[in-house]
């Protein structure tokens, strides 16, 4: 689940706005493309920020930008209708690489951007982090440019650690379990750990545990691999930690909002979650423990610390567009270093290495969170769910062993059943 976009989505009604005036003298695409560029974006903080800067782009480019801004569901509906029909009235499209990226690429909806990106020295494509780029690449072809990223980090209570005699947050998953148990024993009524528990909702956050145990959803040959020893150990650890050190009478349908509420109400010591939600924990208006929240890198498992580092949203060019050269000009600007820095200073994590290395790029983040994110960007994995066409169905399948582990059922048997069903889904998609 791409939590940043979910936390900021506004109205579900379409808002279509032609923003700004064409600069005097025209300009536009030398290859004959229209001077009017049609850009479809989702309701998001990134979108609001980019809209404010559009007059600058229009003046520089001589283009007029028409923005169609939609809620997430309406965006999906429009893409489903227009892209399937081969419509040419969308030039630039904001899309979710991990949710619909493979479907769009497989169906030929996304224009290839490989040459444009790599031959554009000013754009400096090498500056983009590798994991997010992996998610916008299909069959070795770049089909999108990542603009918003998320990483999984460890949220924790500094005061509870200090009370139990711990001077630093856990560096390993073994330490996390030990510390969670100790703090829970020292503070009756407070859980040692909380996280998502819902079958599909938990998959994205469970993924970092899976990778850190040395597993993945699919192996190197493309076969389902949620029944490997590494995967079974990850399921058992995640479920066991919640069963033994999680909230009393734990629910098995919690998404981020329920888990975050438990943490911000002071009812848990540790919480693994996407960094993009951090203000829910640090804002005194939303959190009873805002003054004692700390952040740390995802704890290392047997395979090291391997949290996800994903692009929740990317920009692509509609293959059916007759204005692709100008569409690339927009992406050059919107995903360029200057706009990425502006966005990140406004609280939207970007995918450019240089922006994370720039003190201005992390000035608005808590220092320990910025440090934790830096670790995630260096050794992160570029997906947080199975990379398939039927993402929702796949998440239900591979998420079932999470629920079974939490409730104390046979993890090995559940993983075997899930793997068989997941493999069938993979076979059907070939």
From TrEMBL:
InterPro entries associated with the record: Bact_solute-bd_prot1 (IPR050490), SBP (IPR006059)
Origin: domain of life: Bacteria
Keyword set, alphabetical order: Signal, Transport
CDD domains xrefs: PBP2_TMBP_like
Family that this chain belongs to: Belongs to the bacterial solute-binding protein 1 family.
Name the UniProt record assigns to this protein: ABC transporter substrate-binding protein
């Amino acid at each position: 689940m791409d939590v940043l976009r979910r936390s900021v989505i506004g109205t579900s009604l379409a808002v279509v706005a032609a923003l700004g005036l064409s600069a005097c003298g025209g300009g536009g695409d030398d290859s004959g493309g229209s001077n009017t560029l049609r850009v479809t974006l989702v309701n998001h903080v990134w979108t609001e920020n980019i809209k404010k800067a559009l007059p600058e782009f229009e003046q520089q480019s001589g283009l007029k930008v028409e923005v169609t801004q939609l809620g997430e569901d309406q965006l999906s509906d429009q893409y489903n209708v227009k892209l399937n029909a081969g419509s040419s009235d969308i030039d630039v499209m904001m899309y979710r690489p991990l949710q619909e990226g493979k479907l769009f690429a497989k169906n030929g909806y996304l224009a290839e951007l490989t040459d444009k990106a790599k031959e554009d020295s000013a754009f400096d494509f090498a500056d983009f982090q590798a994991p997010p780029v992996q998610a916008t690449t299909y069959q070795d072809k770049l089909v999108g440019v990542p603009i918003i990223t998320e990483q999984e980090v460890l949220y924790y209570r500094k005061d509870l650690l200090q009370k139990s005699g711990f001077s630093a947050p856990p560096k390993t998953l073994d330490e996390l379990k030990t510390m969670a148990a100790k703090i829970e024993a020292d503070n009756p009524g407070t859980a040692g750990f909380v996280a998502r528990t819902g079958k599909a909702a938990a998959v994205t956050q469970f993924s970092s545990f899976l990778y850190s145990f040395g597993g993945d959803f699919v192996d190197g040959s493309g076969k389902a691999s949620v029944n490997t020893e590494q995967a079974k150990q990850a399921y058992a650890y995640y479920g066991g930690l919640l069963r033994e050190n999680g909230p009393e009478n734990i629910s098995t349908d919690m998404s981020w909002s329920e888990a975050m509420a438990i943490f911000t109400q002071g009812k848990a010591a540790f919480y693994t979650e996407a960094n993009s939600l951090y203000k829910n924990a640090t804002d005194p208006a939303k959190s009873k423990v805002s003054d004692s929240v700390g952040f740390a890198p995802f704890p290392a498992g047997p395979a090291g610390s391997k949290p996800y580092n994903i692009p929740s949203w990317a920009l692509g060019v509609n293959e059916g567009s007759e204005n692709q050269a100008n569409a690339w000009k927009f992406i050059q600007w919107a995903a360029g270093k200057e706009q990425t820095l502006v966005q990140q200073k406004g609280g939207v994590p970007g995918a450019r290495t240089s922006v994370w290395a720039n003190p201005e790029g992390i000035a608005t983040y808590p220092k320990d969170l910025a440090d934790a994110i830096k670790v995630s960007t260096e050794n992160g994995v570029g997906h947080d769910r199975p990379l398939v066409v039927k993402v929702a169905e796949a998440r239900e399948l591979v998420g079932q062993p999470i629920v079974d582990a939490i409730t104390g059922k046979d993890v090995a048997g559940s993983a075997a059943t899930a793997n068989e069903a997941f493999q069938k889904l993979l076979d059907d998609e070939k």
